[in-house]
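Researcher: I need the complex structure. Ligand is FE2/S2 (inorganic) cluster. Inputs:
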Amino acid sequence: MSKKTDTTRRAVVGATVGVGLGLGAISMLFPIGALKPKKLETPETEPPKDGDVFVFAEGDKKGSEVTFDDLPKGGPAVLVFPKDPKTGVVKSGERNNLILLIRLDPGELSPETAEYAADGTVAYSAICTHLGCTVSEWVPDEGVLLCPCHKGIYDPRKGAEVIGGPPPRPLPALPLGVEGNQPVCAGGFTSPVGVVAGLEPQGGSCAV
Ligand code: FES
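Model: Output:
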């Protein structure tokens, strides 16, 4: 681990200054969702696809469509679900559809991250790749994503690479496009969502 990364990790873990994104309860309720048997797909559970818009997953604006004006530059991240704009169906019936939207300075994004971004906004799966908790906290000083279960830390500027804690791989990215003043989905997740068999820790649990 580089000196900078180590410093970041210590600062984040030591200070525990993460800001909850409002879905802490969900993170505890579904610790290893990705390991459950696959459910029958319905319009509410189908994965995000091209052209889907996003709606707030919780809070005062729950169910409202997200515009760029709703996303403060530099964070925090916002938890959203995709919505089919043609049918109006919100795809909240599948927890793996929970997504983090974060608006950042485009100049801070790595080249690979910039390919998936729209107006500096990036989208990632909110399901931790360690044991499947919700990545529900934002660390304002560092501008990083924090999973509260075991303090997994992801850098949204660098493809959500893991910079601290036990997650074995980055959060999957969701390519974005622009429609009017809204970020929209421009493809599927770049890798499997959640826990991948063979990469999960042996005998692990998501107890906090
Ligand atoms: S489930 Fe996220 S760090 Fe363990």
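Model: Summary of the prediction. Residues 3-185 form a domain with the Rieske Iron-sulfur Protein fold (CATH 2.102.10.10).
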